[in-house]
Specification:
By secondary structure, this protein is mostly helical. It has helices at residues 2-28, 47-70, 80-102, 107-130.
């Protein structure tokens, strides 16, 4: 069961992070979709924050790689210790991200991005606990 749950979590996190990366790409292009990000302060992001979107996209791609590799869906080039560290680091990041999204003044960010980051956190938790190279028996 754990193996199936880990693989489902790997695929689910990939879909969710891909959705988020596309959204950030559209923000980076200057489309007026920013009410669901950055606290809902902007309709169109200023140029400095667009650069941050580009950096966020690269990080999301790394998270996708780590979660797919840790869940055993793809063969990774990282050793298992490094993979474990990154997997837990990203899982903790998404826990923090969920809290920050829920505390946002933007209702759209609070619910849309809050739910998305909570789901990625849950997926990352399953992957970190039961994925390749580190298994916790509960």
């Amino acid at each position: 069961m754990n193996e199936n749950l880990v693989m489902i979590s790997g695929y689910a996190s990939t879909v969710m992070l891909s959705f988020s990366a596309v959204y950030y790409f559209l923000l980076m292009l200057g489309l007026p979709l920013a009410k669901a990000s950055w606290g809902g302060k902007y309709d169109i992001l200023p140029k400095k924050l667009r650069v941050s979107c580009g950096i966020s996209i690269m990080i999301m791609l790394l998270v996708i790689y780590v979660f797919l590799s840790k869940s055993g869906i793809i063969a990774g080039i990282m050793d298992e210790n490094t993979l474990n560290v990154f997997s837990w680091l990203f899982t903790v990041y998404f826990a923090f991200n969920t809290v920050m999204n829920v505390l946002s003044k933007s209702v759209i960010e609070k619910f849309m991005m809050g739910i998305l980051s909570a789901a990625v956190f849950a997926s990352g938790l399953f992957i970190s606990l039961w994925g390749r190279g580190y298994n916790v028996n509960i």
